[in-house]
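G., before I forget:
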Amino acid sequence: MMEPHDFVDDRENLAFHPEHQGEGDKTDLDRFGPIIYTRLIVKICAPMVRYSKLAFRTLVRKYNCDLCYTPMIIAADFVRSVKARHSEFTTHQALSKLLTELGPHMVAFRQLYISQHSPKPMFLSCDHPLIVQFAAKEAQVLADAACIISPFADGIDINCGCPQRHWKPLRGWAMAEGYGACLINRPEAMQEMVKQVRNQVENPMFSVSVKIRIHNDLQRTVDLCQKAEAAGVSWITVHGRNVDERHQPVHYDAIKIIKQSVSVPVVANGDMKSLKDVENVHQITRTDGVMVARGLLANPAMFAGYEETPLKCIQDWINIALEHGTPFTCFHHHLMYMMERITSKQEKKIFNVLSSTSAVVDYLRENYGLQ
Ligand SMILES: Cc1cc2nc3c(=O)[nH]c(=O)nc-3n(C[C@H](O)[C@H](O)[C@H](O)COP(=O)(O)O)c2cc1C
């Protein structure tokens, strides 16, 4: 089970040990070298709608990813509908089935489940550690969702960073009100959510984190983070852009200030495409972890130090995806991302229009010797 202080232990053992402070101009990178250095940083696969599903999580975990998030799930749908639970959340197969069956007697069931599998729940052996990200606007609904999911995951994260325009394909504009990045302007609502989950999930080790964007006025973000900490949040992930920024440079300096303003662990997010980027961002921000989305889509092996997706990783994706029965579109999209940097324009023209799993597998066998 991952605990918030797991982040801190590493710091004490190595880079942040007082003995290592003040050694002239040496950076931690100079002192420990890149491989040891990046072992100190918790490396996280970001929540990604449509992409950070079980099969992809299994892949990145093979390549030094320490912690994975599910795609964002709308808490109200999850609580209301068995169908939504089944389609939105997949973890180890047997557990998914149990989750589907959770009905009105879920509390009793959950207790039974925990007592039967104590001390080591089944999910520990496969899709772990796992954070389930929810979008919610009512604290009680979020707490209900957290109670349902708690036997199957290590914690929940509250999406407080999704700009409104990103909701359109999901639920339409009207539904967007009150969700996502709105919460950075409603610190009390966010606090209430954190507290309700803390009060209602029985497992004290279950984490409750938030993922935010920054404000134009950074002091407001600092206040928000301090309020989140006071409410009992386990850690805070900061995408260093404001809600209107898309491709502008990430404000790593802002993340650094936030890190200095709270005691809970902080995770930096935004524009890291290689392990070198991870190191550089860490040198600037000194956060406890880094979270990566698009960099991992392009190269799921990036946390293991690969500059571009190795063929071995593509082979692993084929094996894992086929084993999980990944739908064709998802299987193919991931391959298009992974092979973007290693295929020519001409190859893309052929590969990107393939229309079945067998056609893709045949293509990769004939052109790359993959099985
Ligand atoms: C395809 C895709 C799906 C995303 N889905 C989510 C999501 O479900 N929840 C969330 O908080 N952020 C989501 N994001 C935002 C990322 O988690 C991340 O904050 C953002 O992409 C910046 O990180 P990056 O530069 O490493 O990509 C998504 C991003 C992408 C590219």
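The longest helix spans residues 187-200. The pocket of flavin mononucleotide is lined by residues 46-49, 51, 71-72, 133, 159, 161-162, 211, 239, 269-272, 292-295 (CB under 6 Å).

More on Monday.
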